[in-house]
Structures are given as structure tokens and as C-alpha cells.
């Protein structure tokens, strides 16, 4: 079945903090996400479920390494040393595009230096040039939850408007150094996660702002990030003269649990506040009325001014990119919960779920693409999707991951169907294309890749790479177009 759009970009994604390791080398500091949770695996039960309880003091203790606990994310999958081998593998699998992040903490380790860290620039320069040599396009994320921790410690994170300028300076350095090597830019990964975990997305901690409510903290941090992102869009357009800057939003598609009108109203509220709000901000450049009303109810007062509002309005994104892993359900009655990407969601009796409870719903991707295209008429890109699984390497040194092939086939088909319906979708990057440390569990054993990496949860192993069955499937798909 060859019904692919000719210039569609099929590829894979990783992030610096989950893949690179070597964070203490060559002038890197640590980003906030690398601090969470610095916790023994056997202590997992003690991970706070309420994100408000991640305190700065607790994170600092981790930063100072006082706990001396094991922390696999620090080591990633050793991409910092094996990047060439990894890009060779991506080229062999015939990826059109590779989404990666340029770690802010490697370029401006403290955030406020006057000059960038040359060693960091050299590293990404080598990587990006090699991608070009191999004919792989690049989408670069500027912050994949990688705000340098010193910014949180010294400035109070993105709650402080000075951080906006630090981010713009970092973006300017990247545009200057890598403008010719990067095809698409995404300023902030899953920007809406800041509204859920402000300390992870924005390095803002409640205890730094006495008298501030949690709602005020999360929405103000988010607002400052929206302004920072819009300024980066403006700068990119001026410096690069291209329309190649998009957003990245964790898309939370959900269905009403049933047709009871009270549940439909609850679902409508979910659509507005958990999905459209974020897309509206980056595509229309202003706060929707329903959010202004919600702010009133929550007693949130956004600290802003007409200049910032004009920046938001005049610098909307060129394309919408989003992650899509699952769908959920919403309602006020009879909803049973299952886990999802950072937040839980309602169970859907019609769907199966992964080992981690993420409900598999390819049709939901078709729905999402049609829905976003209808609403915004901006080109769409699925920048994360995939199936986490505790893969096992067999005697033949491969993984028979037919479950993943099946997952990918169904989702690829959904994309093609949405394109057939008229949605303008131009690319897809499968998450964790080379196994890396999971963002949510901090373990290697939640694997997403086409390539198996020989490290366990405690970072024991050789780090050697092994092609899974899905690697060969993907390559064949690229050669023949057959699902
Ligand atoms: C997204 C993050 C990724 C990645 C992915 C999968 O929210 O942008 O970095 O981690 O989720 O999540 P997990 O690793 O928890 O399965």
C-alpha cells in the first residue's frame, strides 16, 4: 500500500537529558529535569505523586549529591560518546528526519554567562554536520525540560522575567552557530507540562515565592515561557529568514465517558483547558476567554504588559508539533483512572493499554490531526509517539518487538488516513528511536527504540547497540512505502 505523501518526513526523536549522559563533562551543568527524581529505584514508592511537593531544598540536596544515590538518567544511553554510531544507525534505517535537543545546560551551564561554552558548541556542531552529511534533516528542540538548574537556584526559574532574556540569548547563539544545519526549530518541549509541573518545565519552585499560590506559580511561569518562545520565533524569523519554527505541546486527547450531558460539559472544559488553550496561545497569540474566566476563578493574575501581549500576538508559530501517545476519557461520573503522560486520565473500555497503563489509540491520532487542522489550519507534525515496552534481547541479539511494529503500523496508517481526509501533516518522529532513559520512570527498561541499548536500570551493561525487528520493519517501510 503506497499512499504516502511524497515529501512526508518519517523519523525519530531523542532528548539530550535522556540520551547524552556525561553531564559533568566539558562544562555542562545539570538541568532541572536531571535532578528529578534522584532516588533509589527501590524507593520508588516514595516519589511524591503531588508535584507541588518537589521542594527546592530537596532538589538542592540532590544537586549537591548529598544523597549519593544511584541515578541512571545522569548516564543516559551514552549518546555523548556514541553519537556517530547512533546517527549511522538512523541513516541505515533510512530516517528522513531526526529530532534532538541542544542542551541549554551544555551551552550556557549557568544560564547567565556572557559567552557560550565552546565545548558544547563544538559537540552539537559535529553532530549536526554529520546529520547533514548523512542526508538526515534535523528538528532541534531548544529546551527539552533542560533549563539549567543554576537558573532555578539563583533566579527562581522562569517565574523571573530575566530568564526570558537568557533563553533568547541561548536561542540566538544556536541560530548563529547552527542556523544552516537545522531544518526546523522547536523552542520549548511540551510547554504545557509547565502548567502541570512548573519546577520541571520552568525551574520555578513554590517555596521561592512566599504568598504565591500554586496556580499563580504555574500560570505565571507558563506565561513567561510563552513570551520567551514568541521572542525566539521573532528572532528566528529575523535571523534565519525562514518560516520553520513550531511549538511542541503534549496533546491530551480525551473522549467524553458517555453521552450524559454533564459529562459532555466536563469534556468540553477538558478540551478547552487541557488542549486548545495551549494551541490557541501559540497559533492565535492571545489568551482565550475561557482561560481568562478560569484565571478569575483561581484568583490568578498574570503579570504582563501590552508589549508582551503584542509579542505574543505578532509572533505565532509556523507549524504545530505535538506528542501523541494515548487518549483518555473525561466525565464527572463513572470514570476509572489509568496512568498517562505525567497526568492520569480516564479509562476507555474499548482500548488496550501498555504495561504502563497508556491507552493505545491510533484512531485518536487520526481524530487529533483532523481536529487540529480544522481548528488552526497550520501544518502539523507529530514530534513524539511510540510504545514503551520492557524489551528483552534474545539469543540472536535482537528483540522480536512485533508489538511495536503493530503499534507503529496502526499509527502510521492513522496519519495517512488523516492526510487523506485533508489534514496538512508533514512529518512524524517516533520517540526514543535509540533506547534512552525514560522521562517518567527514569529507567532504561521502559524502551521505545528501533535500536536496543545494552544498559539496565542501574546503568550496568556494555552500552552496545542492537537492531530490533522494528528497525528492519521501519527500513523496509521507508524503501517500499508498505505498512
Ligand atoms: C514526553 C517527553 C519525552 C519522553 C516521553 C515518554 O512527555 O517529552 O521526553 O520521556 O514523554 O515518556 P516516558 O519516558 O515517561 O515514557
From TrEMBL:
The keyword Hydrolase applies. GO terms for cellular component: cytosol. The active site is at residue 384. GO terms for molecular function: beta-glucosidase activity. Gene3D superfamilies: Glycosidases. Signal peptide: none annotated. InterPro entries: GH (IPR017853), Glyco_hydro_1 (IPR001360), Glyco_hydro_1_AS (IPR018120). Keywords: Glycosidase, Hydrolase. GO terms for biological process: carbohydrate catabolic process. PANTHER family: 6-PHOSPHO-BETA-GLUCOSIDASE ASCB-RELATED, GLYCOSYL HYDROLASE. Belongs to the glycosyl hydrolase 1 family. This is 6-phospho-beta-glucosidase.
